[in-house]
Design brief:
Layout lengths: L22 H4 L65 H4 L59 E5 L4 E4 L7 E7 L6 E2 L7 E2 L5 E4 L9 E8 L7 E2 L3 E6 L10 E4 L16 H5 L5 E6 L2 H6 L15 E10 L5 E11 L10 E4 L8 E3 L4 H5 L5 E6 L2 H6 L7 E3 L5 E10 L5 E11 L9 E4 L10 E2 L5 H5 L4 E6 L2 H6 L6 H5 L1 E2 L5 E10 L5 E11 L11 E4 L16 E2 L5 H4 L8 E6 L2 H6 L10 E2 L4 E10 L5 E11 L34 H6 L3
Parallel strand pairs: 1-9, 10-13, 14-19, 20-25, 26-31
Antiparallel strand pairs: 2-6, 3-4, 3-7, 5-6, 7-8, 7-9, 11-12, 12-13, 15-17, 16-18, 18-19, 21-23, 22-24, 24-25, 27-29, 28-30, 30-31
């Protein structure tokens, strides 16, 4: 028999199956004999007649072996002619530690040769690179097949940063060594557990937080079993990694507080969606209160959100790929910015200037009170709440109220950094100052007429100026003093005030409202008016008693009718008499008392031929007056007799005689006429 067909019969062949293991070694005889020189023959052999080693027989030449030829798998083929002696699927040549590139169970690669360099057929493989040494162990005699009940999944799809398990199930494997390859050609052993791998020497390889860089990597396990000498790999598993959506940490979503508690009910989370997506498409963004909810896609926030932690709260945002379902999370800070603190400032009371309830107000003067020590806050003033809310129609600093007397403004306080604002109200009252309506104070120059100096009691103007108003009144001799409220005239000075500088002086008034403090200023003149200038020697009115001026009036009866006003031309000097009124009285007592004035001075019937008439001369403009008197003298009206002027008929010298006409010289009768006047 030539089992290996190498041309050397088995009983002469040192390696009957050409697996690189000497038959002597495969037979099991080395327990009884030695082959120290590893030539496949028994060292120092002693044989009997039958040619068998005496050491292997029960008795010399008995031909009964003292041991049992090994047939490890009990298949009827002894190990020395069995390429897989233990039937574990691992060829003996491999389990012995030799090479068999073509996996045919024969030592070396095709073609094999059993000839030595001399051309002799040795029966052993001479073309191999190894073999014919002591096997590395006895695995080739041990039946230890490897059976994998569950191979790794051929493809595993996972999301970036996810975790997977590649599982091998087997009851025959004693050790595992996981390997990875980016291309299925070059394989690297995963030496130890690390940040990504766990279970590198077990049947379950866990990959945690799997990075995108491992996409399309392949994994397999080199497995082994005691007694199994071959290299055995599991099937390969290819890992496909879907990328997570790109994440950023968006800027905080800021809202302004509305009631100083740090909680608002109007966070519109959707405002941040575009920023979070950063241009990505096919991604669903949801918002959650906890990381657990975000990771499990539970309890998404769908409406306007009310923060549950005052001032600052962190929400968790889930970005999920519509196609792959891969999700990543990020955070979104909710920030409730405080609004400026507000007070209700005291009502601003200002004084009107022209009594119409409208005045100009410097609104900036209110800032410090309203800010109440706050900094970084801008203040604007508005007439309506809508304008204040929208920061529109900002009022000018120099503001004129639009509603007379009272106005309510809306004040907007805005944080210069956050833009958060609050509003308050500012009441304005325009107080009307005391009204000054006063006439000039005029006196006539009755004391020492002509010096134009009189004593005034200025307090007599109090009632006229105060006129029932709740005010305090002060008098001054200069405008600046009235403004500065200094050098006010005392009561004593007011009641006995003499003009000293001129006939007319100005007195200045300061009127302060006792409730509002509003001031008003005015003035009036004190004036000493001169008395009418009358003639020291008034020409008397003299009339002839001609009679027939009224019924029963006889000539030379001592009565006549006078127009007393004709005396004005003689009484008033240096002015137009028309500027004066004259009132006439019969007695000085009536003149003093201004009673019983002559009713019709233009037609006065005298009571005696020589009568005193008393006259009051009053300036129509100033009402200043003086008195005078004059006489009415009714004189005898002589009626002379014919003076006896006689001329000749031809006295006219015109040659017309006998016409009864003559030329008289009347002055020739003067002496006669004058001689008869009383």
């Amino acid at each position: 028999i030539d089992f290996d067909n190498d041309g050397v019969l088995d009983y002469l062949d040192l390696d009957s199956d050409n697996d690189g293991i000497y038959d002597l070694h495969e037979s099991g005889a080395l327990e009884f004999i030695n082959d120290e020189d590893l030539d496949g023959t028994i060292d120092e052999i002693q044989v009997g007649i039958n040619g068998l080693s005496n050491s292997l027989e029960t008795e010399i030449d008995s031909s009964t072996l003292s041991f049992t030829l090994l047939d490890s798998n009990d298949d009827g083929f002894y190990n020395y002619i069995n390429l897989d002696s233990d039937s574990d699927g691992c060829l003996d040549v491999i389990e012995a530690g030799y090479t068999d590139p073509n996996d045919d169970g024969l030592l070396g690669d095709d073609p094999i040769s059993t000839y030595d360099i001399n051309g002799d057929n040795t029966g052993i493989v001479t073309s191999g690179v190894d073999g014919y040494t002591l096997p590395i162990n006895n695995d080739f005699t041990i039946n230890a097949p490897i059976t994998i009940d569950t191979q790794p999944e051929s493809e595993i799809i996972v999301c970036e940063d996810g975790s997977i398990q590649i599982i091998i199930e087997s009851e025959t494997i004693d050790s595992y060594s996981w390997q990875s390859s980016p291309d299925g050609i070059d394989w690297d052993i995963i030496p130890t557990d690390n940040e990504y791998y766990n279970g590198v020497d077990s049947g379950i390889l866990t990959i945690n937080n799997i990075p995108l860089s491992l996409n399309n990597f392949k994994y397999r396990a080199l497995v082994d079993r005691i007694g199994y000498g071959c290299i055995f790999y599991s099937e390969e598993s290819t890992v496909f990694i879907n990328p997570l959506p790109d994440i950023i940490v968006p800027t905080g979503l800021e809202e302004c507080d509305d009631d100083y508690d740090g909680i608002v009910s109007y966070f519109d989370l959707s405002q941040k969606t575009d920023e979070i997506l950063a241009g990505q498409t096919g991604i669903v963004v949801t918002y959650h209160e906890t990381i657990e909810d975000a990771e499990n896609n539970a309890n998404g926030i769908v409406d306007l959100y009310t923060n549950t932690t005052a001032d600052n709260q962190t929400l968790h945002v889930r970005l999920e790929d519509n196609e792959t379902g891969c999700a990543a999370t990020t955070t979104l800070d909710l920030i409730v910015n405080p609004i400026p603190e507000i007070i209700i400032p005291p009502i601003l009371e200002v004084c009107d200037a022209n009594y119409d309830g409208i005045t100009t107000i410097d609104l900036s003067s209110l800032d410090a009170t309203i800010l109440n020590g706050q900094t970084g806050i801008s203040i604007t003033y508005h007439e309506t709440q809508e304008d204040a809310n929208n920061a529109t129609n900002i009022l000018p600093i120099e503001y004129q109220n639009s509603n007379p007397n009272t106005q309510e403004l809306i004040v907007r306080l805005e944080d210069d950094v956050t833009g958060c604002y609050s509003t308050t109200t500012q009441g304005i009252i325009v107080n009307i100052p005391g009204l000054i309506e006063v006439t000039d104070y005029e006196l006539c120059d009755y004391t020492n007429p002509g010096d134009l100096t009189e004593v005034f009691d200025i307090t007599t103007k109090d009632d006229e100026i105060i006129n029932g108003q709740n005010v305090s009144l002060s008098y001054f001799t200069s405008f600046s003093d009235s403004q500065d409220n200094i050098n006010a005239l005392s009561t004593a000075a007011l009641t006995n005030y003499s003009n000293t500088n001129s006939a007319s002086e100005t007195i200045y008034i300061r009127l302060e409202h006792n409730v509002t403090g509003c001031l008003s200023y005015g003035d009036f003149n004190i004036t000493v008016n001169p008395l009418p200038n009358v003639s020291p020697e008034v020409t008397d009115l003299v009339q002839c008693d001609i009679g027939d001026l009224f019924d029963g009036d006889l000539a030379n009866d001592g009565y006549s009718i006078y127009n007393l006003e004709e005396a004005a031309e003689n009484v008033v000097i240096g002015d137009d008499p028309e500027n004066y009124t004259l009132t006439f009285y019969k007695t000085p007592e009536d003149l003093e008392a201004e009673t019983n004035a002559i009713e019709d001075p233009t037609a006065y019937l005298n009571e005696t031929p020589l009568e005193n008439i008393y006259c009051r001369v009053e300036n129509i403009d100033t009402t200043c007056y003086t008195t005078s008197y004059f006489y009415l003298e009714t004189i005898f009206n002589p009626i002379p007799e014919d003076a006896g002027l006689i001329v000749c008929d031809n006295s006219e010298g015109n040659g017309n005689d006998y016409d009864g006409l003559g030329l008289f010289t009347l002055s020739d009768a003067n002496e006669y006429v004058l001689s008869i006047i009383i």
